[in-house]
Amino acid sequence: MGFVSTTFDVLIIGAGPSGASAAVHAARTGLQTLLIDASSFPRDKTCGDGLTPRAIHQLELLGVADQVTGDYFNKGLKLHGFGGSVEAPWPETYFTNKGSAMSRMEFDDLLFRLAKSHEEVTTWENASAQDPILRGNFLEGVVINHAGQEKTVKAKHVIIADGVRSPFGKKLGRQWQRDEVYGIAARAYCETPLSDEPWIHSHVELRDEDGVVQPGYGWIFPLGNGTVNLGCGALSTDTRPAKINTKKLLSFYAGQRRKAWQLGPEHDVASALLPMGGAVSNVAGANWMLIGDSAACVNPLNGEGIDYGLETAAMAVDTLVENPKRDLTLVWPHRLRDAYGETFMLARTAARLLTYPQFLPMAGPLAFRGPLQKAIMPAAARLMGNLITEEDKDLLARGWQAAGSAISWARKGSPLWDSTSSLV
Ligand SMILES: Cc1cc2nc3c(=O)[nH]c(=O)nc-3n(C[C@H](O)[C@H](O)[C@H](O)COP(=O)(O)OP(=O)(O)OC[C@H]3O[C@@H](n4cnc5c(N)ncnc54)[C@H](O)[C@@H]3O)c2cc1C
User: Fold this and answer.
1) Are 37 and 163 contained in the same domain?
2) Distance CA 411, CA 277 (A)
3) Which of 58-72, 73-87, 114-128, 140-154 has the lowest mean pLDDT?
4) Domain coverage including residue 222
5) CA 236 to CA 48: how far, in whole Å?
6) Residue 38 domain-assigned (yes or no)
7) What Pfam family does this protein match (any one) (predicted)?
8) Ligand 1 centre from 19 Cα, in Å?
9) Looking at the structure, do residues 336 and 192 belong to the same domain, yes or no?
10) pLDDT tens figures, 234-264
11) Ligand 1 atom nearest to 291, measured from its CA
């Protein structure tokens, strides 16, 4: 086994959407960057493949939105359940009002190739970050197994984007707060002649084979290529664990939708866990920071994380460019809290509510069929689409922000607000 030592401005561990886009942003500021991934591209990733306008906006900034929306884009979300259906077009915000969906095999490869096209970026595939070399919480180097060869890489800054399980983050002390709400989800692909349907569909009345309503939703995201991504996810907490087998639930859900969508058999079925809403601690050290899924930047209400991955990538590069010599241990969690703290806290609280078995069967019919339907459902679609922004000045946004501040204030005493141990 050879031993090689190299030095870069930035080392990025993990080349999913978060890591690959961080490499693009780093390259644009002239930083010599090494981007590594344990897999080789193209590679699959268990996902719903849905891209809301918020993600498309980030892709515009990266210069690849047209390559994603060129062949297929969608206009909004159709929500179904409890005897009703609502059509919610993506709203006109400063984001684009186009959404899309693209298989992660293709999408992640697109972003990886974009990163690779920058001369400041060196890429290593089949390169797994194994061990940190630490001095206190300063990361002096990383031992990497690159196609069987052991290499030590030194970098001024290290961005860790190693996904939901964050194996390297764990070695730096990253901890998942298991008492917070988390998701369990499964997806499959199905052939259909209806894959050009310009809406994504969510079924929020997700019943298991015994007819019991589950705290989650089923989705059908058309891909515009003869297939749909079909899946289901449920929310869980340690005290109220979702008692479901997601793959079985997925097959039941596919059966219910088969006729309307003329679906072929499910294939490439895969499932995964989703820590959400910033429910991890120790997301930064002196010269390193966690982004995307490794920092649990996933919306607890819809399981969406690609947009947060792309956004935290840009924020991370900004942060280290603005603070080239500062210790990031407190700076990075602060930055994340500023951007997402209130939204995540409110979404986590709402998601926790959904895990009470009485809640959905009671609230669902009211939302879909009651007199409040017109007001509630477009709002729900905005929440599901991650489209509440500081710039939104309408009633919903103000209500959301006020509730966020109130909940943040109410939970201030909780250890989650301890900035040395947690993101939110
Ligand atoms: C069933 C399901 C459905 C979902 N649906 C959606 C959806 O429709 N829309 C949406 O926006 N989000 C969705 N999500 C969430 C979304 O998949 C994630 O938020 C997104 O993949 C995060 O990207 P990432 O780059 O942070 O991590 P990843 O995409 O997981 O990339 C992490 C990378 O790190 C690499 N890696 C890991 N360890 C190491 C190591 N030690 N050394 C080197 N490399 C390493 C891995 O090989 C991988 O390529 C879904 C998730 C699930 C589970």
Assistant:
1) yes
2) 14
3) 73-87
4) 182-275
5) 19
6) yes
7) FAD_binding_3
8) 10
9) no
10) 888 777 777 788 899 999 999 999 999 999 9
11) 26
Altogether, the residues listed in the chain come to a count of 424
For ligand 1, whether the C-beta of 295 sits within 6 Å is: no
Could you tell me the two tokens for 221?
């995201």
Q: How far apart, in whole angstroms, are the C-alpha atoms of residue 276 and residue 294? A: 10
Q: Which of 10, 110, 124 is nearest to 55 (CA)?
A: 110
- 308 in a domain, yes or no? yes
Kindly indicate the confidence band of residue 212, based on its pLDDT and cuts at 50, 70 and 90: confident
Confidence class for position 393, pLDDT limits 50, 70, 90? very low
CA 164 to centroid of ligand 1, rounded, Å:
6
Q: 47 CA distance to ligand 1 centroid (A)?
A: 8
Contact 214, 244 (CB under 8 A): yes
Name which of 86-95, 341-350, 371-380 the model is least confident about.
371-380
Distance, CA of 285 to CA of 82 (rounded, Å): 47
Same domain, yes or no: 418 and 292: yes
Quick one: pLDDT at residue 390?
56
Rounded CA gap, 242 and 357, in Å?
10
Q: Ligand 1 pocket check: which of 13, 41, 45 to mutate, most ligand atoms within 8 Å of Cβ? A: 45
Contact 167, 127 (CB under 8 A): no
Rounded Cα distance between 103 and 109, Å, is: 10
Residue 257 maps to which CATH number?
A: 3.30.9.10
> pLDDT tens digits, residue range 351-392?
776 666 666 666 666 666 666 666 666 666 666 666 765 555
Report the candidate in 132, 414, 373 with the shortest Cα–Cα distance to residue 278.
414
Which CATH number do you get for residue 405?
3.50.50.60
Would you put residue 403 in left (φ > 0), alpha (ψ -120 to 50) or beta? Answer: alpha
Give the count of alpha carbons within 13 A of 98, CB side only: 15
Q: Is residue 40 part of a domain?
A: yes
* Rounded-to-integer distance, Cα 268 and Cα 261, Å: 18
Domain count, the chain: 2
Domain stop point among 241, 275, 309 = 275
Q: Amino acid letter at 199?
A: W
Query: Is there a single domain that holds both residue 123 and residue 264?
Result: no
User: Would you say 115 and 121 are in contact if contact means Cβ atoms under 8 Å apart?
Assistant: yes
